[in-house]
């Protein structure tokens, strides 16, 4: 069973950051329940880490596992584009339910 490791970079406690966190958690629960780890990183609190990861805009989501590493920028509200951008394929039964 695949494990999904995701890091979401945000800038402070803002409505856009909150929306991205909510959208990411909803997407993961719908498609990868029990098989994902999410770390939310505030670039204001950890600017060196953001610099090392070359974060130029927020919110930025990075999928580390399964390989390859992929990035998506934005509030993650377009679930289909997020799945496509991260090269994640939901299970066929998820698609049948309109998730």
Question: Can you walk me through this structure?
Answer:
- This protein is α+β, with helices and mostly antiparallel strands and 99 residues long.
- It has a single domain (4-91), classed as Glutaredoxin, CATH 3.40.30.
- It has helices at 15-32, 47-52, 79-85, 92-96; strands spanning 4-10, 36-42, 60-65, 70-73.
- It has a 4-stranded mixed sheet, with helices on one face.
- The longest helix has 18 residues, at 15-32.
- Residues 93-99 have low confidence and may be disordered.
Q: CATH-wise, what's the superfamily?
A: Glutaredoxin
Unreliable runs: 93-99
Helix content class: 25-40%
Contiguous helical run count: 4
Distance between the termini: 20 Å
Proportion of beta-strand residues: 15-25%
Give the CATH class: Alpha Beta
Topology as a string of helices (H) and strands (E): EHEHEEHH
Instruction: Give me the secondary-structure category.
Output: alpha+beta
Biggest sheet overview: 4 strands, mixed
Provide mean pLDDT, rounded.
89
Strand order, biggest sheet?
A: 2-1-3-4
Q: What is the second-level CATH architecture?
A: 3-Layer(aba) Sandwich
Radius of gyration: 13 Å
């Amino acid at each position: 069973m695949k494990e999904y490791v995701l890091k979401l970079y945000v800038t402070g406690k803002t409505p856009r950051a909150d929306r991205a966190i909510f959208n990411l958690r909803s997407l993961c629960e719908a498609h990868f329940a029990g098989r994902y780890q999410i770390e939310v990183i505030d670039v204001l609190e950890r600017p060196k880490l953001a610099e090392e990861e070359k974060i130029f805009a927020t919110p930025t989501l990075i999928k580390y596992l399964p390989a390859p590493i992929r990035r998506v920028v934005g509030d993650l509200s377009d679930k289909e584009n997020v799945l496509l951008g991260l090269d994640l394929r939901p299970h066929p039964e998820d698609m049948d339910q309109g998730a």
